[in-house]
Protein: Carbon starvation protein A
Amino acid sequence: MNAITIVIGALCILAIAYRLYGTFMTAKVLKVTEDETKPTPAHRMEDGQNYVPTNKWVAFGHHFAAIAAAGPLVGPILAAQFGYLPGLIWLLVGAVIGGAVHDLVVLFASMRRDGKSLSEVAKDELGPVAGFCAGLAMLFIIIITMAGLSLVVLGALERNPWGTFAVGMTIPIAMGVGLYYKKTGNLKLASTVGFLLIMVAVAIGPYLQGTWLGDFLTLEKSTLAIALPTYAFFAAVLPVWLLLAPRDYLSTFMKIGVFGALIIGVFIVNPTVQFPALTEFINGGGPIVAGPVWPFISITIACGAISGFHAFIGSGTTPKMINRWKDIKPVAFGAMLVECVVGVMALIAAISMQPGDYFAINSTPEAYETLGMQTVELDTLEGQVQQDLNGRTGGAVTLAAGMTYIFTEFPAFEKIASYFYQFIILFEAVFILTAIDAGTRVARYLIQDFFGNFIKPLKKTDSLVANLIASALASFFWGYLLFSGDISSVWALFGVSNQLMASIGLIIGATVILKIANKRWYMLTCLIPLAYLFVTVMVGGYWMVTNVYLNTESAGYNVINGILSIVMLILGIIILVAAIKKWIALWKIPQVELVKQSEAEVA
Structure:
């Protein structure tokens, strides 16, 4: 099979899904066309700080940049261990039936409740017990996510003045774009100039080597571990239009541009898929993912198919920016499908490599020796990028190496292969950083919502003091984990907890649909993906606890991880039980009366 077949098929499926299923979800299930006369929370509660009506494409750029972090880049690459077929099927089916629906209903549910966080929405829709459990789970997950993503960035920017300069320059550039757009309303000119300035910053980067500025920006991990949460603090406090939205919007150009180039490259080169549909590791025992293909295909590939992290953005910054109700289709449903394309292209970058080369990069040298494989093109590729690639696990290096491997089919490309490789490493760092700043802002909202129940002044989002305290706490929590490095021992928890968070989002979406839809069977749009995902999470969590965390013979033996996993699974069960009780009670009410009650609730 050739890669072009996969790309064309995936693009056609996603385009049809957006046009048909996306329209069905927004027009029929959520009835957003009936809400067009109603102002969105961004208009009703506009404060110039958090609630700001925003052009739908700027909102799309922010939302996509915030949700598309390391997951769609790394997850599909790691899942290639099982062969190309499981990952491809889960990306397409999971994104259309699960991820796009999840993101859409979470954003809609939050907007119905004035842009509240998902924990607050859960409290309103399911009751105080479910709301408390959801808030605790969300706070736990977001802190781990921010610290874990930042660890990836530390590796990319450590002693890398080029990357640090380019990433750092996106901050003043974005602020300039935000100020200019706020003053003139000229989005096209602001976007064009901002994008060109970012490209100039990237181009200047290599020439910093050996200069005073280059030496100043050659930072160690310990320094970066302080700088990142410090930046995140300011990103969470400053008005959303000044830094967060324009920076994410401009970063989206870079993200879509890189993968657009990869798509064009695949069409021109049409590389052959070197991987089999299924490998010998589908039953478990692989060097990258120890577990079997199910449930771990759906846990390894989170973002790109369905991800609970998206619920933080969909009930955090984005609902406070939506200008018109109908904008939720391109912003939520559309951004998720674009992220799926990113995941598909990352998978292609991995499976276009020789399996021996792929496993040599993603396995430790000791594990690779036991596989009985031989490298094929890896030595040549290392010479082209001027870097040792063996044993660079984690997926990020594989994406850069895989994209470089595809483009080396162009004869003239070999001369700039090392530059291209470093550019992709930089691109991945920017990809992740845009999620960190938005995620920290969301963590601030969660802290205000959760702890504001006990400390009332903290709940006031219009209070500068409350915002500063919550932002400082959010940055400190994940910054401490980042600086200490302890988060690396619990990173494996993220896969299970992330999909558990997605289950919570679908539970709330199903509840809202039951209340507002004209036909109760529309609830199946959430219940079908929920049933699969919840069972997957429970099985995956149980497997990790029994086979890894609490298995004294396992290299990953860790009692704390085991306890945290058990607590997370129990929280999920409590929320589901509360939801089922609520559904049974709502089902007894005639649908016409239920719709009227629901409208009165949010009036």
Observations:
- The radius of gyration is 23 Å.
- The chain has a mean pLDDT of 83.
